[in-house]
């Protein structure tokens, strides 16, 4: 893959207060069945598919720029907010936890964050403070959303803000190594 410095994945900084707060780039607003994804070549948003199951994203979903994970994508992030955030919007997000999951047998962590500029959620500092039902809904969504595609997703556990920040720091270091290798 070629390196395009104007692609939002590479151009937008992850934020000066990382790992506590990051700039999240939203791909999918909450309450939709559309699976949008950043096209790595063009930097445009493309519709990957409409979800096969009758479920809706429980939070705004996107990625943290200038991060890289084992699935060869930037680190995923769910941003809780009272509003549906438009795709390709940059949201300042406070990290409060992580959902550890396996997607088709591969590790696929999802950071859990709150929109720092949304007073209805910005008071949360750790995933343990969230309503239990919200975590159950999130788990249910991710365990079900690919079932009718005959794909398996297993949510292993929700973990605290400290663990999430360690995962974020590792993905930032992995991005630096990935870019250095691309530029060789």
UniProtKB/TrEMBL annotation:
Alphabetized Gene3D superfamilies for the sequence: Inorganic pyrophosphatase (3.90.80.10)
Positions annotated to bind Mg(2+) 2: 76
Top EC group: hydrolase
Keywords in alphabetical order: Cytoplasm, Hydrolase, Magnesium, Metal-binding
Biological process according to GO: phosphate-containing compound metabolic process
Residues that coordinate or bind substrate: 35, 49, 61, 145
E.C. no: 3.6.1.1
CDD domains, per the entry: pyrophosphatase (cd00412)
Function: Catalyzes the hydrolysis of inorganic pyrophosphate (PPi) forming two phosphate ions.
Listed name of the protein: Inorganic pyrophosphatase
């Amino acid at each position: 893959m070629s390196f395009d410095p104007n692609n939002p994945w590479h151009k937008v900084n992850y934020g000066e207060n990382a790992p506590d707060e990051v700039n999240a780039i939203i791909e999918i607003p909450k309450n939709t069945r559309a699976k949008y994804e950043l096209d790595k070549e063009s930097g445009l948003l493309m519709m990957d598919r409409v979800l096969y199951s009758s479920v809706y994203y429980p939070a705004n979903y996107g990625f943290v720029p200038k991060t890289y994970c084992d699935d060869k994508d930037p680190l995923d992030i769910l941003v809780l907010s009272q509003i549906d955030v438009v795709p390709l919007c940059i949201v300042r997000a406070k990290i409060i936890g992580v959902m550890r999951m396996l997607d088709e047998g591969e590790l696929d962590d999802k950071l859990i964050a709150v929109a720092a500029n949304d007073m209805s959620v910005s008071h949360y500092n750790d995933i343990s403070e969230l309503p239990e039902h919200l975590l159950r809904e999130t788990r249910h969504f991710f365990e079900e959303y690919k079932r009718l595609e005959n794909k398996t997703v297993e949510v292993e556990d929700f973990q605290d803000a400290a663990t999430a920040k360690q995962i974020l720091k590792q993905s930032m270091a992995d991005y630096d190594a990935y870019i250095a290798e691309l530029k060789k």
